[in-house]
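Lab notebook, bench 4. We co-purified these components, and the gel suggests they stay together. Before we commit to crystallization screens, I want a quick structural picture of the whole thing.
Request: model the full complex, all chains together.
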Amino acid sequence: MNTKQLLLGAVIIGVVANILDGILHGMLLVPTYNSIPSMSGMDPGKMPWFIFSDFVLALVFVWFYGRVHASFEKTPMGLLKYGVFFAIVVSIPTNMITTLIFKGFPYWLSWVWTLAFVIEYAIYGYILGMLVRPKTAKA
Amino acid sequence: MSAKQLLLGTLILGVVGNIFDMIFHGGILGSTYATISAMSDMANKGGMVWFIIADFVGAFLFTWFYSKVQVAFEKTSNGAMMYGLFLGIVLTIPGMLYESLMYNGFPYWLSWVWVIGGIIHYTIYGLILGMIVKPKKAAA
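Here is the predicted assembly.
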């Protein structure tokens, strides 16, 4: 993977991550978050950091792929598989520990997050697969 | 990677993970956690058993994922240690940095302590896993 692909992947996946997280965490799950005592003081002023973090997340996802690319087929489906594996490792058991650590964080929400991770990273993988797949030679 | 190596890796790393977490989270950081409002009823959930199980689940996934990507790393202790280092970065950044954004009273500096602790934790995992999976030298 070259630097251009790394940066392009980070930017595109970062944008997609922000859209998906905006829908899931910024809209669908807001009533739930507001009912959790340990999360009730979320400051809207932190929003730029959430946006920035999604670009960091995207950079880390693409960078790690650059390290392990030999293990996956260089196709959208091959990288979708990378995304699913990545999501499983990143979210389990971390999301489950969250419910043990933070006050009022419901167990079912840990699984919602995990399922969301798997879907989101599968999408990121598929997108990355379209960016890094080898170009077919012209006839 | 054979099933035996997967199970052995899970068992050994699970034990090491529990010892590490007991020292790091239970000992060194325990008094800090007691001062954070969002974590104040941590001890009331009877969660210790689940923390122990979670470390074995984490160890299993670490070992299983290595089996999927091992061709990208040298089959030596150092090669697996690099896998652990890289995965430590992946598992902690930006994940641990969200904690201070989301939870009441969780200090920003503690996120970075978790990042550094996590990277050390997984680098040690990699080093140990490398010793478990390295190819045996052929007999002379």
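The radius of gyration of chain B is 17 Å. Worth comparing against the SEC data before the next meeting. The mean pLDDT of chain B is 92.
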